[in-house]
């Protein structure tokens, strides 16, 4: 469903992604780990279509289409979802209104009829329960005054409502206490196993911590370093990383002598 070939991307003239390759098939979970500053969030932003990032070389094919030519809105409607590392607060826009608008825009793009208010509310309340969120949060402004854990859970709620084909979750586990982590993992697992919309989704899970992978067993683990995937393996790679740290697993810097 997703093929990233030789992706190079820069921000303000700094090359951050330097030839990244990744293939994700429907139903697969790919964990991406890597030291701070290696380009994990840059990858998420480039896939979302963030305007500050310029792709200089390479291609991204999503379900047979050139993703990079689509606008941010088209990508979202086509089924690409990004849960951001730092979810934005949007004062004045209620969470529930936003979800309804987003879902119905997507349905319109796919030439489906809009959900009426009642059906929508029923759907969203089921999803709210799945992530263990307090219902009153639906009626507040998006993320405004939400705790860190509530913001992360709200990202997962958006994902469950929109049922994307490809979900990129950028450090959704960071800043969560153990109970919130379990709920978020539960929500992601429910989504992973849902195929009511036909094809199973592909998931890219950016994380620093093995602990999330205790709850969500990935099919593949990749280490992103200096803008490239330098090592790939199965779940055992994350365990090895936890034991040894990056120093032992990363390519050594070339000697300058
Ligand atoms: P990660 O998510 O792996 O920690 P990022 O993708 O956030 O890494 O960042 C990769 C590199 O890009 C870092 O060195 C960061 O400082 C740089 N970077 C990110 N945003 C900008 C920006 N707006 N301007 C310049 N450099 C940036
Ligand atoms: Mg980081
Ligand atoms: Mg990051």
Automatic annotation (TrEMBL):
InterPro entries listed in its UniProt record: AAA+_ATPase, ABC_transporter-like_ATP-bd, ABC_transporter-like_CS, FeS-cluster_ATPase_SufC, P-loop_NTPase
Segments traversing the membrane: none
ABC transporter domain sequence ranges: 2-251
UniProt key word Transcription: no
Keyword terms of this UniProt record: ATP-binding, Nucleotide-binding
Keyword presence, Nucleus: no
GO MF annotation: an example: ATP hydrolysis activity
Gene3D superfamilies: P-loop containing nucleotide triphosphate hydrolases
PROSITE patterns: ABC_TRANSPORTER_1, ABC_TRANSPORTER_2
PANTHER family per the UniProt record, alphabetical: ABC TRANSPORTER I FAMILY MEMBER 6, CHLOROPLASTIC
NCBIfam families the record matches: sufC
Family membership: Belongs to the ABC transporter superfamily. Ycf16 family.
UniProt-recorded name of the protein: Iron-regulated ABC transporter ATPase subunit SufC
Species of the source: Psychromonas ingrahamii (strain DSM 17664 / CCUG 51855 / 37)
């Amino acid at each position: 469903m997703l093929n990233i070939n030789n992706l190079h991307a820069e921000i303000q003239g700094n090359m951050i992604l330097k030839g990244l390759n990744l293939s994700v098939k429907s139903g697969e979970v790919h964990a991406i780990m890597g030291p701070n500053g290696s380009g994990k969030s840059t990858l998420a932003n480039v896939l979302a279509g963030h305007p500050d990032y310029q792709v200089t070389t390479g291609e991204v094919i999503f379900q047979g289409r050139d993703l990079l030519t689509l606008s941010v809105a088209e990508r979202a409607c086509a089924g690409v979802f990004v849960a951001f590392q730092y979810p934005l607060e949007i004062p004045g826009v209620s969470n529930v209104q936003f979800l309804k608008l987003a879902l119905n825009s997507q349905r319109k793009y796919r030439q489906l009829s809009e959900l009426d208010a009642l059906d929508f509310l029923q759907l969203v309340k089921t999803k709210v329960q799945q992530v263990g969120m307090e219902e009153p949060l639906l009626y507040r402004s998006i993320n405004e005054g939400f705790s860190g854990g509530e913001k992360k859970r709200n990202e997962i709620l958006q994902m469950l409502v929109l049922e994307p084909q490809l979900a990129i979750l950028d450090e959704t586990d960071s800043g969560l206490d153990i109970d919130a982590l379990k709920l978020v993992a539960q929500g992601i697992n429910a989504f992973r196993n849902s195929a009511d919309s036909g094809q199973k989704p592909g998931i890219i899970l950016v994380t620093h911590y093995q602990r999330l992978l205790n709850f969500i067993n990935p099919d593949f683990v990749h280490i992103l370093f200096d803008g490239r995937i330098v090592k790939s393996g199965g779940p055992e790679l994350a365990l090895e990383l936890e034991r040894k740290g990056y120093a032992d697993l990363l390519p050594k810097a070339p000697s300058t002598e």
